[in-house]
Amino acid sequence: MCAGRTLEGAGCVTWWGFSPALDLVSIGAVRQKGRVNVLLVGSGDPRHILKTIAHLRDTDTLHVWVVENCLEVVARQLLLLSLALTHPRSMGLQEKTEVFLEIFGNSEVRSQTEQMLRHMARQLSLGVTNTLTGLNNSCLDTTHLRFKDRDDLDRIFKQWIHPPSPSPSISKAWDSRVRQHLGTRYDSRLGCFDWDLMMKLHQRHCTVINKQQYIRWRERGVAFEMREGLYQSTNHSVLSTRILNHRGDRVAVRGYWGDIVSSPYLSFGIETDNKTLMKTQNGQHTKTAQDISYHNVQELLQSFSSRGLSSSHEEMQEANAQDSLQVPAPSLSEATQKSPNELLTLCGVNVTFLPVDSLSKLPDKQKYNCLFDSIYCSASMVHQLGPSLRLIAAPKAVLVVELADYLLDLSKEQVAGFAEKVDNIARGAGFKPLEEIRGIFATYTLQEG
Is the full-model pTM beyond 0.85? Predict the structure, then answer.
């Protein structure tokens, strides 16, 4: 069988981004303030949403508009954002951080995490099928999606609750991707993994990614193991269906079609404002990308509670003290009895999901004319950008494009060629560079006139 890009290490479904989280309000010559509209094109995960909200001032309001390239990614975004918005009464900060990272970056999770995934999938299924109001949270808006899209999302959530039979083994699905990608090099795969880490990621300033953890992820798809426990339950949120060609026929195959090379450590684990986490001793980092991911995600989730907590401050302290004392968290049944579907509402924050094919149609709708103050586009969606982009950009809008620096299957020449292509597209749409293109992102601002 073959499926084009599915044979490449990056895969054809972007479960996580290939760059660190950004505060998209602070990028540019002057920090944006007041009411800010941000358009995310193919971000793959909610890292930019989390970080932008975390750095939002009390007087600012934020409306994030999200366009992805497939509904499976939309479903994952809704899952992770709902988890981030889970009330402290239902889940303490430590447990929430661990569950978030497990669902975010693991092919296999603990049984408790799988139980939480199923519980949240039930709530999301009920929300997206509500034709009048959509999700039961004022921050998350799915009403702009077509009814067919919402029906498809409901089907995806129900597959997480009751996996289709026969359900693929995630370990076999992962190993199949590794075999396809490496081909004849499969038997010497540990050497290949080490080469990709030392000669590619470490050469691209990701030395904090630990060899043992990276090779474990390349072998099994498990990036985050933070507690004693068995990581053997399938993370159904990273399984999806793809149409492959088999002997001239088109066959629907359910499996893992995401990244197997670059790693989920890139989103939260290679940069931090806490410099003590980046210390080295004898030329080696004292902390790992897992440690940094945990710290960064916990800080971001804490900021959610601070901005949107509707219960008393004492209740939040009690919930977090339970974690710090390592008192066992309430069981899922206990938590749902207390608050079956209680999510935080963040003051002045809205996240709206648009149909997957909507980017080219936005310039034709008056409501989007000169609307977006910041526009972010992932490396996988650059081909959808064009001259009409300037029609939906606000005056002095900032455009941020993810480059291909962490797409490890590409050569240095291909990475440079991709950056040149991005520059041509941005200039053709009426944007000028904010700084010389280098590193992970290219940033532009709309030219006047």
Answer: yes
Low pLDDT (below 50) residues in the chain: 1-7, 310-340
Antiparallel, parallel or unpaired: β 233-234 and 441-446: unpaired
- Distance (Å, whole) CA 299 – CA 297: 5
Residue 332 and residue 305 in contact, taking contact as beta carbons nearer than 8 Å: no
d(CA 404, CA 396): 26
User: Residue 52 is which amino acid?
Assistant: T
Helices (H) and strands (E) in the chain, counts: 14, 14
Size of the chain, expressed as the number of residues it contains: 449
pLDDT digits (tens, 9 = 90+) for 402-438: 999 999 999 999 999 999 999 999 999 999 998 766 6
377, 401 contact by CB (below 8 A): yes
pLDDT recorded at residue 165:
81
Preceding omega of 166 cis (within 30 degrees of 0): yes
343: nearest Cα among 80, 86, 46, 78: 86
Q: Residue 168: name the closest of 80, 256, 49 by CA.
A: 256
Cβ–Cβ under 8 Å, residues 404 and 379: yes
Residue 351 · residue 66 · CB < 8 Å: yes
Reported as type and span, the H/E element at residue 401 is: strand 393-402
Parallel/antiparallel/unpaired status of strands 240-246 and 249-255: antiparallel
pLDDT tens digits, one per residue of 352-375: 999 999 999 999 999 999 999 999
62 contacts 25 by C-beta, under 8 angstroms: yes
Q: Name beta bridge partners: 246.
A: 249
How far is C-alpha 354 from the geometric centre of its chain's CA atoms?
A: 16
The CA-atom distances, in angstroms, between 48 and each of 217, 221, 238, 316, 374 are: 23, 23, 20, 25, 12
The CA-atom distances, in angstroms, between 209 and each of 174, 212, 265, 291, 379 are 21, 9, 7, 10, 22
